[in-house]
Amino acid sequence: MGGSPFSGAAPYYARHRLDHGEEAIAHVAAVLGRDATVLDLGCGPGTVAIPLAPHVREVLAVDPDPEMLAEGRRRGAHLPNVRWLSGDSTGLAALPPFGHVVMGRSFHWMDRRAVLAELDRLLPPDGVVVLLGPSRQPPEEPWEPAMRRVRARFGVGKQPASGTYQASGLHHHDVLAASPFSDLTTACWERPVTSGLDTVLGLQFSYSYSTPTHLGERLEAFVEDARRELLADNPSGEWEHVRQTEVVVARRPPGRPPRG
């Protein structure tokens, strides 16, 4: 995760990215337990940390982007048991002790094998790794064909880094299955959602490759082009889609001790 590709994205991320849903958070809370100290690694503006905090002892909300942490602090100011900390997946040993790890749509940014090996060293014997995000084959958002055309015209798109999902093509399930945390259980929830044009446009600014900072002086042209393309594709300006959240709980196999 080193560095911060999300400069300028924090308010759009907080406002326009859908949450994971109450059922998924309740499931995670039940797995972790009331006494848990949890590391939310790549916490963003608190999408997991804030709803999870009332159910656990403490959340260490860690992110390399100062704007994301500031947004999280603002949104979670009423929660005394969340510590907002600057850091990333390459500095886990320097963090305060934690008993479990959760990651909501951040694991794909990391050198996943290296992170899991380090967590095997740091987590206690009953420590678990929990991922929240889309399933292995998520439904495509209905506005994506239009937005792909816009992104192609502006030359913006995903930039894979070594060891990440985009670079290797290995799904999280495959990486976990070959890791010390190979005992996997999954659960999935879906709910219908309607998104308007402003939400779809705002969502684009939450992505690393099309943040306002990344687009710079092309921002206004990008908005105009996206608005025109989206409305040509769907004149109603409203898109019905399905919000899907999968929770993967990864444990060490029974009888396997931590590396320590």
Strand content: 15-25%
* Rg calc: 19 Å
Number of helices: 11
Which strand order does the major sheet show? 3-2-1-4-5-7-6
Morphology: globular
Number of strands: 7
Major pleated sheet: 7 strands, mixed
What is the N-to-C order of secondary-structure elements (H for helix, E for strand)?
Answer: HHEHEHEEHEHHHEHHHE
Helix content bin = 25-40%
- Unreliable spans are 161-166
| Classification by helices and strands | alpha/beta
Average of pLDDT: 92
Distance between the termini: 24 Å
Question: Any overview of this molecule?
Answer:
With 260 residues, the protein is α/β, with parallel strands linked by helices. It is built from 11 helices and 7 strands. It has helices at residues 10-16, 22-32, 49-52, 66-75, 112-122, 144-154, 165-168, 172-177, 197-204, 212-215, 219-233; strands at 37-41, 58-63, 82-86, 100-104, 129-133, 183-196, 238-251. A 7-stranded mixed β-sheet has the order 3-2-1-4-5-7-6. Helix 4 links the parallel strand 2 (58-63) and strand 3 (82-86). The longest helix has 15 residues, at 219-233. The radius of gyration is 19 Å and the shape is globular. It starts with 9 loop residues before the first helix and ends in a 9-residue tail after the last strand.
